Amino acid sequence: MSMRFFLTLATVVTVILFGNSLSRGEVQRSSAVEQSHESHGEGMNHNHEPMEIPQGQPIPTVDLVVHPDQMKGWNLEVKVSNFRFAPEQVNTDARPGEGHAHLYVNGEKITRIYGNWYYLDTLEPGQNQLRVNLNSNDHKQLVHQGQPIEDVEVIEADALAN
Q1: Residue by residue, what is the 3-state secondary structure of the chain?
Q2: CB neighbours of 61 closer than 8 A, spacing ≥ 6?
Q3: 3.40.570.10, 2.60.40.10, 3.40.50.360, 3.40.50.620: which CATH number matches 6-161?
Q4: Which of 2, 77, 106, 129 is the most buried (most CB within 10 A)?
Q5: Which value, in Å, is the radius of gyration of the alpha carbons in the chain?
């Protein structure tokens, strides 16, 4: 399924892991704010309203760090602050600072993430965009001042990395 993106802010800073080159491909770090109509991998189209973090509440943050796996694929580390992964509360009422993340690869939702680590076994050769956003228990995307709370990484995958 295709998704339309409206890029409102983008900066790219190259991050090189393990010296000057990667055996599993190059990783670029990107700060991007994107708004999209969400498409769940479960075969259902959902358009969740955003959930603005209430004034006075700590603002959650997310930082996606991609670690090439020594055998195959990538280990995704989802670092959060002012946020608690709460898989036991999924599909219940929203609470600021609690919920799960959604992982997108090249604009397609891959899965929900309920903790700080996720293993991604394959990517298409070439450039791939990985995006993680924070969501409330009832699947609303968390936003602060109208901006999604998310992080984006761009991975240059070679055929040997898969």
Answers
A1: CCCCCEEEEEEEEEECCCCCCCCCCEEEEEEEEEECCCECCCCCECCCCCEECCCCCCCCEEEEEEEECCCCCEEEEEEEECCEECHHHCCCCCCCCEEEEEEEECCEEEEEECCCEEEECCCCCEEEEEEEEEEECCCCEEEECCEECEEEEEEEECHHHC
A2: 80, 81, 82, 83, 149
A3: 2.60.40.10
A4: 129
A5: 16
Q: Could you report the per-residue pLDDT of 69-127, keeping only the tens digit for each?
A: 999 999 999 999 999 999 999 999 998 899 999 999 999 999 999 999 999 999 999 99
Q: What is the pTM of this model?
A: 0.71
